[in-house]
């Protein structure tokens, strides 16, 4: 097998072209970006087999948004999933994950991989499909699927390496209402329960790292034990997995394999900050990919907003990468409208986080542009400055073509005080 | 004029019946609630002229949500505004404010006051309407309107007492892009600019307190200087007004007049916490009523979500009362759908905040109920446990009547691990 150089190893010697590109995008110096990659603080998922638009994730980079698409056994329409993927990209998704479990999985993946975006997958899903059920999945089968995904051009793989016997014991010692809500996590629990053996992704982690190193594919260290409800947030399985993932992140870096860490899950607002800090601590500041956090369980249909609240606090504490939550979360496979709404809300949250991350930089300047347009009551400029301007235009124009807006009309405060104070003095 | 006892004064002597009611609602002891009212930590807006459902706001109480309705010159359909008010109440609004500026203002107010809910108004709007423009408003006219609102049964009045010459100077010393975005604030600036005199609500504050004390009506100390964009958040006008409002809150309490403080506005996520703390500090922990905070300027059409992020952080730091932000904010007068969406999102945020405020209390138990229903895959129970269950049902049922959901189908993680671990051990 031809042993390739991983991006980390190339960065130890100089600045590879991929890093030049992402450094420019992020406003970092190329050497600074390369150094952050070698220290495992920035991850660039870029399978060398498949050139595409790049997205750097981590320290000093804009917060990125992933959108999940994919068929299920109950709703399997590959063409629809591709349209969803396109809708996600049109609304600003930085990466896509194909979570398909229904239909022709390699064909579905091929179609997603034809898009110009970093793509992630969860190999255990396909291993279970092929074996018939989780209990029948062998380590050989799983590693073969992982190799196939790497060869096909997938950029990052969610690998539930932390769902090990220690986490399983914690789950029994300190029971949770929702058990396991990660589909991949549940598959690994089922494998361990059936065989009594260790999760091969954990026991054969060095071998896994060899595969990933050879293919230069990124490990997304999966949070199979993420809490599925507020009550479960303080149970031991979660932190047991944190500690494991931290150690695995260090081992990956030492092996020259790029990785990020997946984080929870459901938890109250006031736990989000320290959970982010804890994950950053155990992993030496590895890029953090958040699923949630969902800060209440009782708002199905509005979980995109519930996620925005959790993301916002997580962003303040250093989270780097958000997995979009759609309004259909907990209820159904999202449709295109759900994908659009969820992607927009996640991107808006990421922007609000970037304002904190970068202070009075480029992101704050985008907001200042909007303020200036509002001061001038220039609607066209406002729609241009808006993240989703056509949506804003639709709302504004439903009451006709007004200089002010139908909220205050002639009693517009901005207009009144602008006339008193005159043009802005500075 | 018949001098009535204010609720604060009654609480100094015992526990009035209104306080018995709200204490029961909030799970507080009646004496504890009465004491918190006398210390100005809880406000109960309950105009004695108009009995209605009560809502306590402040320390130890659930976070409450206000919804603004009202006509404008450009869109004046009183029947529609009443339907909006009803939609807000059906979705959980705790209070309403009538911000009408178009049409027959007393008639509109009468219709809102017929609803079973605490109602707030902004008397300066009507004063300006009657005078023709802000520069013509006299202090006599303004105080007359205030008295009329009190007599008509309004429970709380937004009074921009902090928009004084000091704030006006700060505005000139440290200019802002958006100037003044509070409509009431702008009116007072216009009055001061025209006359060169002090804002009568500030210079004649003792007289104002007499009126409010006689009527036992609550002062909502308005934040006329709230920043209207992220850039303006760090300008001096905002904190100048904070300091003034803190002093006025103390004077109101000393006069036996209940009050809460209105807070900003637009600001980055990481400024929300200390702004809330600062407002609580200067006002000796007065209940805090937040307009926003909006944590980015560039998401018109999604400002309900932007508000949810700001509210979430504010809730963690002690904010008590949220003013709903609708998706039409900055663009148009909200329609019924906007009111429904904005009210739901605000109520969900308030619930997420209550979970932090009350720890493992009643609010966390509501979430646990949902988790238990999810574990059992009992959809009817889930819809019952959900804040907006019929909306959730619509999404779930679009793919037919499934035991699991169309997201994972047979590969439901919860089902899988539940079968492995057996029923919950505790």
UniProtKB/TrEMBL annotation, chains A, B:
Q: Which organism is it from?
A: Methanofollis tationis
Q: What is the lineage of its organism?
A: Archaea, Methanobacteriati, Methanobacteriota, Stenosarchaea group, Methanomicrobia
Q: Which InterPro entries match?
A: ThiC/Bza_core_dom (IPR038521), ThiC/BzaA/B (IPR002817)
Q: EC no.?
A: 4.1.99.17
Which cofactor does this sequence's record say it needs? [4Fe-4S] cluster
The name of this protein is: Phosphomethylpyrimidine synthase
Q: What class of enzyme is it?
A: lyase
Q: Say if the entry is tagged with keyword S-adenosyl-L-methionine.
A: yes
Question: What are the UniProt keywords, alphabetically?
Answer: 4Fe-4S, Iron, Iron-sulfur, Lyase, Metal-binding, S-adenosyl-L-methionine, Zinc
State any GO BP term from the record.
thiamine biosynthetic process
Q: Which GO terms describe its molecular function?
A: 4 iron, 4 sulfur cluster binding; metal ion binding; phosphomethylpyrimidine synthase activity
């Amino acid at each position: 097998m031809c042993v390739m150089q991983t991006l980390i190893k190339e960065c130890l010697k100089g600045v590879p072209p991929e890093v030049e590109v992402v450094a420019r995008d992020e406003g970092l110096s190329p050497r600074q970006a390369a150094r952050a990659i070698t220290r495992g603080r920035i991850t660039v998922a870029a399978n060398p087999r498949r050139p595409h638009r790049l997205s750097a994730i981590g320290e000093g980079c804009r917060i990125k948004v992933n959108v999940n698409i994919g068929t299920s056994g109950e709703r399997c329409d590959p063409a629809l999933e591709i349209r969803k993927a396109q809708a996600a990209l049109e609304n600003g998704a930085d990466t896509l994950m194909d979570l398909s479990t229904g239909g022709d999985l390699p064909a579905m993946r091929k179609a997603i991989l034809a898009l110009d975006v970093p793509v992630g997958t969860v190999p255990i899903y396909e291993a279970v499909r092929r074996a018939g059920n989780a209990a029948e999945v062998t380590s050989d089968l799983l590693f073969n699927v992982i190799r196939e995904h790497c060869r096909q051009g997938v950029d990052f793989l969610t690998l539930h390496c932390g769902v090990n016997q220690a986490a399983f014991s914690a789950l029994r010692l300190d029971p949770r209402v929702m058990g396991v809500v990660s589909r991949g996590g549940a598959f690994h629990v089922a494998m361990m329960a059936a065989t009594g053996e260790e999760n091969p992704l954990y026991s054969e982690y060095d071998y896994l790292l060899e595969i990933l190193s050879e293919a230069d594919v990124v490990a997304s260290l999966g949070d199979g034990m993420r809490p599925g409800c507020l009550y479960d947030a303080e149970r031991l399985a979660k932190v047991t997995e944190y500690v494991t993932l931290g150690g695995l992140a260090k081992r990956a870096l030492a092996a020259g394999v790029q990785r990020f860490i997946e984080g929870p899950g459901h938890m109250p607002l006031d736990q989000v900050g320290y959970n982010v800090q804890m994950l950053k601590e155990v992993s030496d500041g590895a890029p953090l990919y958040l699923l949630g956090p969902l800060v209440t369980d009782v708002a199905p249909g509005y979980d995109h907003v519930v996620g925005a609240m959790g993301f916002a606090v997580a962003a303040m504490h250093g989270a780097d990468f958000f997995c979009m939550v759609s309004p259909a979360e907990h209820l159904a496979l999202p449709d295109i409208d759900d994908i659009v709404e969820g992607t927009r809300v996640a991107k808006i949250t990421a922007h609000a986080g970037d304002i904190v991350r970068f202070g009075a930089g480029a992101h704050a300047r985008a907001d200042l542009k909007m303020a200036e347009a509002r001061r001038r009551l220039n609607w066209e400029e406002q729609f241009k400055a808006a993240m989703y301007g056509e949506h804003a235009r639709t709302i504004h124009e439903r009451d006709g073509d007004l200089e002010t807006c139908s909220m205050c009309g002639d009693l517009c405060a901005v207009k009144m005080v602008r006339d008193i104070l005159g043009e802005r003095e500075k």
